[in-house]
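For practice. Supply one:
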Amino acid sequence: MRVDVVTAVHAEYASYLPAAWDSLRRQHHPHWTWRVQIDGPPGEVLDTLTACGAAADGRVQIAAHGTREGPGVARNIALGGCTAPLVQNLDADDELEPDALAALRGALAAHPTAGYAIGHARDLHADGSLHTLPLSVPVGPLARGALAVAWVSALPDRTLPPVHPAGVMWRRTLLLAVGGWAALRGVEDTATLIAGSALATGILLDLPTLRYRRHDAQRSCQNSNFSGGGAQYLFIWQRAALLAAGPAWEDR
């Protein structure tokens, strides 16, 4: 089964794309398309993709929308062009483990009613070392709503979900049903995962699938005067509660 891998990228993250590209070329599952959506002026990103050879690969689709709109908008533009039944997010500064696509696709094939699959995330540090963080939920099937309940019960001390939201493989129909990535600041992937978990069951694998790069330029390290974080979390929970009270998602 084919997988569309979606990456939103702006010029400041262009230098990380060759590593993301290498991680895709190392995948044991060969049937993928990499959809790179450039957020802002395309020049530096296009130059980088050309220099590393990605632009010449027929499996790589590159698009740009000209203005800087943020990762949620860029991913949703790319999602609109996806044709594969499975969609894997890959942030521009992260890498996929070699078994990621094969393992996540295999989990969804084995559990046809599950809407998403995810594995461990390992922090990738500047010296190349990898650090695995312990999971706060057990591996295996994730009941509908389980991630949403675990997430809200940990607020306000912990704002990230119990699994890393950047490494999810989605059935495209579920991702469309929740409206793609949310129009929120810095938590668009968290909001999408919590909404998806409120609608559908999932699978948590007992193996690493994502290398989450730690660096000073990542958005989570930037200082800001933004004061809407609490209201964003309230929105995420209210939306999840509403979805959980309605009919379960079914693949169509």
